[in-house]
Amino acid sequence: MKISFQLIRNLIKTSFLGYFLVNNSFCLCIVGFVQRILLTFNLSEITPQLIGLSAVSIVFGRLFCGFICPFGIIFEWTYKLKMKINNSKILPKVDPKIHNKLIYLKYILLIIGLYLTFKYTTYVICGVCPIGSFAGLNGTVISFILLGLFIILGYFIPMFFCRYFCPIGALLGLLSVKPVFKIKSNDKCNTCRLCELKCPMQINILDNMDEKECIRCFQCVTACKKGGIKYGK
Question: Is pTM, for the whole model, over 0.90?
Fold first, then answer.
């Protein structure tokens, strides 16, 4: 029996989700996850994880997002659930004028996150959270509230958090501006744009492909039955 590439990818991502849950006592703290990765980018402590993550992004693009990130698979399940319920094969689109501005929000959050990380070199965001101080909630509770909010938003707008809010995606995106391996069309492409209709990140794949926004989910490659979209050098 032939096993599809997407099935293999889902198995890999689900395995990393399971590892993440077990390793973190089944806590899905999205803020803590972001802070943990940002801490590895503290320049006073160059780590193998930092070197590996940077190298993979420079060569392959945001492969971390497409194959490893535990929250990425959750948000992917969310938008696919809506498609299943609505029996839809076409993803909803955000007005391009709004979308093209919102994608830069995560870069602003990255700057803020890195500033706090380099200044305090600790899990500072939860500690200084004004919402927690006002509502009497600790950082973990707030993180679960935020995760629930992003899951709801991701039900209506595919990969909402990954598109607009994830500072880790922004950081890896900066390393993936011109990766060695790229998503690109070839002479088999008939410009039907089915690849773009299947892209959860709303990327114009055939017109000025934005590599830094691509999460390497390869939905576009899978969607093209003619082999018109390939991933390679």
Answer: no
